[in-house]
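Service request form, structural biology core

Requester: graduate student, group of Dr. S.
Request type: structure prediction, single chain
Budget code: on file
Notes: please return the result as structure tokens.

Sequence provided:
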Amino acid sequence: MKLWKGVLSTMLVGTLLAGCGANSSGSDSGSSSGDGKTVNLKMFIAQPRLKEHYDKYINAFVAKEKKDKNIDVTVQLEMPPADNAAQILKTRLASNDAPDVFALHAVNEIPPFYKAGYLEDLSGQPFVSKLMDSVKPSVTTKDGKVVAVPLETISWGYLYNKKIFKDLGLKPPGTLTEMKAVVEKLKANNVKPFLLSYKESWIPQLFVPLTAGAMINTQNKDFIDRMNQDKGSFAEMKSMFDIIDLVNSNGTDKALEIGGDDGSAAFASGKAAMWIQGPWFAETILKSDPKMDFGVAPLPINDDPNATLINLSTSTSLAVSSTSKNKEVALDFVNYVLDDKDSSAFYEALKFNPISKVHTFKSYPWVNDATAYVKAGKSYQDPSIPQAVKDEAGKALQSYYAGQLSQDDVIKALDKAWKSYNKVNK
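Core staff response, request fulfilled:
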């Protein structure tokens, strides 16, 4: 998801204190406190917009740990913005300053992080048996080890305002030509077709997994393998600019000044009919307008209806550092994330999908929209594009929107980023 605004100095850091150990030193390895001990647990989760929900759940965990094990837990929750988080985390891990529990993108980051030895093997933990069979593979390494507990599983493409579509008699288009017709109908009725929010570079990069994923699924199936061998080029994906250009030329103003939170508020207020965005912003959108009726649909990229597909992904997941000095408590927390009694309310509050057999809440309407496409066979697994390439894509597509880079410049930047990734990860 992770899905995913400032600089390092503006990080949100929440410290939650509980129990009689709150005013003790709380060293990393834990210290004695009466009959129990005190543990300072460091967490790193790059979702500051959801801080209140994490705070509440962590407080409940702190109380449970005190009650069940007489351990006084102090939790230091660091929530950097998504644009900076990946680099900050990599720096931490490489400098032996790893958080005890940290969020990572399951599809993009588990393979390199596991290879580097950063991830604790969680295969024997109780939560593993609770995972849905459809979700478990996304947090499992190639050699069969479960190394994270998934938070967000996502079925996404773009968001659309159902009321606007219904009022104008529109349906989600199945081809690029049909999308152009939808755009013209919206413009004829003085409705901005697309909300543009490119202030944060991770948002424009969403075009890459959407377009490349659909093309890989239909016409270029060995693209990822060839790129990993320095034998491919994004020149093969140049038609991705057809939908990018359509969106950019029919969108709201001041795109480079609008981020995800502002975009959520604008979308909720009806400033545009569509937003190239995933449902991970559902909680933020509904906070602006609890009655907002929005749907999820697959993004057409060309005139092949078979290429109009939903992207299936597991994004934000929680791992335990292999070097943590507080593994007992860290493992207790990742298991509590799928607690039989408490996790359903937690996931529902976050507006995440059910991912476990213990989850009892109903799927949201936008989830059902996407699921209908999935059941019809119109979906693909999120392509394994290196995070470094996605990061470069975000910056390059910001510059492309601003007229500073050409299509060929963007392609060269993506190819270069992937080759650089290969050199480091051979």
